[in-house]
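Sequence only, no structure available. Ideas?
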Amino acid sequence: MTGSDATPSFRLAYVPGVMPDKWVRIWDERQPDVPLILTQVPAGAAAERMLGGDADAGLVRTPVDRSVFSAIPLYTEQTVVVVPKDHLVTAVDEVAPEDLSDDIVLHPLDDVLDWENLPGRPALERPATTADAVELVAAGIGVLVVPLSLARLHHRKDLTHRPLKDAPESSVALAWPEDAKTDQVEDFIGIVRGRTVNSTRGRQQPPARGESTGADRGGARRKPAPGKSAGAKRAGKSGSGAPKGNRRGKPRRRS
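Reply:
I predicted one. Tokens follow.
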């Protein structure tokens, strides 16, 4: 799809935990005539939405299938363990995996962390969602390891969290189908990368009505008046143009 085939709106999918508000606000300021349509989707469904044509791009969790998607890494999140407020690990600032050896560590089906060996003891069955797992933690059935943004998303007054070291981390990227990069996608790339509206790497925006260009404000060179060369103009500034040492025009005496 080319820029000329793009729809008049920009459809952006995003996964739970990602907060696109700042980028959306900048988009609205720069593109008031192009609505940005936000849709939150489960982490595992973002790729299908984009390939199916339901979203132009997505703020997704890595890894991304680079055979069909282009992607720009944005940031990597800290991994935390969610526990009841009276749990023993709340006495420390950072938790090690071995500190959870006696705990049931819940492993929801929508987990976004790539574990080789999950710490602690496994539950009899896996919760369907992270939200379900949080409810089990609140009931005192186990603890949950998630990216920090998901701990904040599912915050409860009776729960808290601590950083978990030596654990896998989750990264967030902006992705779009490799063969469907629209002008709107290019504009959004510029926003997430912090480009200014006039950046040469992004698409140039037309000047507002009535606004003059740099050339109109004197950016172009002025042409010399007819009959005068640029050299003559410069000479006129330094004097009469007569040879140095003979300013009165008298002939020099030969010795």
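Strands lie at 10-14, 36-40, 57-61, 69-76, 79-84, 105-106, 143-147, 159-163, 171-177.
Hope that gets you unstuck.
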